[in-house]
Design goal:
nucleotide biosynthesis, 8 helices, P-loop_NTPase, globular, Thymidylate_kin-like_dom, 5-stranded parallel sheet, alpha/beta, binds thymidine-5'-phosphate, dTMP kinase activity, Rossmann fold
Length: 213
């Protein structure tokens, strides 16, 4: 199964992915955890360019194509081989991030983005996508304090520096994507304690696994 996690900054994706990986491993499944941008060797170089505050001058279209390049490399080198090997792949962000951030956030055409995503992935779509949903004010506060703790504010702070209005558009983008594709995308409220949030994540995953067979 291929499961992706989405949401604005500070929703706790990393924590939920860790909890789900533990749970699946306990059930005897082999799990691969990966992420975009930066899930491949080349992708890690692209991630540095994409998230640094020092590349504020990156224009919207150049940003888009770097995310797509990261995705094409990641799918070919990491995701498809892991799925072919029978692993459950848990991926922190995927195609929906591009529609939400570059589409709803930056204003690029969502239809164009869907086509380009398809080219980048060769048509690979997740079996389940969990959108962790939170008020952007709470999410950004969490993300900024995490960045201060880890010292990531200069190396990975480009999106956290965007306005609250930008993140509100991204959040609405995710909710619109979920409304249009309720079979694949589940929205989970992310403002509760991590264990409570995980109960919903786990239920969505079990339901998708039963569907997947
Ligand atoms: P994160 O991995 O720490 O969540 O940060 C990745 C950032 O990149 C996040 O702010 C969202 C952004 N992003 C896009 O704008 N478009 C994309 O396609 C992807 C994968 C991420």
């Amino acid at each position: 199964m291929f499961v992706t996690f989405e949401g604005i900054e500070g929703t706790g994706k990393t924590t939920q992915i860790g909890l789900l990986a533990e749970d699946l491993t306990r059930q005897g499944k082999r799990v691969a955890i990966t992420r975009e941008p930066g899930g491949s060797r080349i992708g890690r170089e692209l991630r540095r360019i994409l998230l640094s505050l020092e590349t504020k001058d990156l224009c919207d279209r150049a940003e888009l194509f770097l995310y797509l390049a990261d995705r094409a490399q990641h799918v070919a080198e990491v995701v498809r081989p892991a799925l072919a090997d029978g692993m459950t792949v848990l991926c922190d962000r995927f195609t929906d991030s591009t529609v939400a951030y570059q589409g709803h956030g930056r204003g690029l055409s969502p239809d164009l983005l869907r086509q380009l995503n398809d080219t980048a992935t060769g048509g690979l779509a997740p079996d389940l996508t969990i959108v962790l949903d939170i008020d952007p004010e709470i999410g950004l506060r969490r993300a900024l304090s995490r960045n201060l703790e880890t010292g990531a504010q200069v190396s990975e702070g480009r999106f956290e520096a965007e306005s609250l209005a930008f993140h509100a558009r991204v959040r609405q983008g995710y909710l619109a994507l979920a409304a249009a594709d309720p079979g694949r995308i589940r929205v989970v409220a992310a403002d509760a304690a991590p264990r409570e949030v995980f109960a919903s994540v786990r239920a969505a995953c079990q339901e998708a696994a039963a569907r997947h067979g």
